[in-house]
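Morning. Coffee machine broken again, so started the prediction first thing and wrote up yesterday's gels while waiting. Chain of 237 residues, entered below exactly as on the submission form.
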Amino acid sequence: MSERLEPALYLVPVPIGNRDDITLRALKTLQRADIIASEDTRTTGQLLALYGITAQRLQSYHDYNEAHRADELIRAVQTGSAVAVVSEAGSPCISDPGYRLVQAAIAAHISVVPLPGATALIPALSASGLATHSFVFLGFPPQKKGRETFLRKALAHEETVVMYESSHRIVALLEELTTLGAGARRICIARELTKMYEEFIRENLDDCLQRLAARPSQKGEFVVILEGKGEGEEMTN
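Came back before lunch.
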């Protein structure tokens, strides 16, 4: 019989594409947890089945039920359960549900155990060719309200800027950044990381926009890594 986990909240990264990227520690934690709280129970169920882990303890935990489910999970830990939290892909809390649950656990004096593992942010940055000693991660830009303000603040950073964007809005994002005066900056677009059609585009922003805009459609998830603001660079009003 496997060793039982101590009651705590375990943050467990899962692969972002290539299923070989799960760690041994993550598998052991998922095997031993009393409850697995998942952003997408279908995707997680498939992953668990791949490794012969029972999905009977699987519960949904996502943006739409986060408030009441967080209370349930906290009570479960307080009564002696080990709760593992997983996103659909990557690391919990990184542009995915989880941080409210972590806040609640800290407030309840519950141990939070973060496991290292897969995330799109670091592989994309490390292979971008842009400065990695200092960077800011901004997640997904707002879709509508506050979007321009968000992008202007992003372009004001001297550090390398990392963002996520969907296939539906990636071209619009590059157009907006160009309109704001960043067309000459170096950029790296990382698409479908760890998957069969993984792609890196490393050019200046103007050329990258032309390349993507020429495609009939955009597919996959995108990580955008943008060079920081240079000395004397001016943004448009």
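The domain at 121-226 is CATH 3.30.950.10 (Methyltransferase, Cobalt-precorrin-4 Transmethylase; Domain 2). Going to sketch it on the whiteboard this afternoon.
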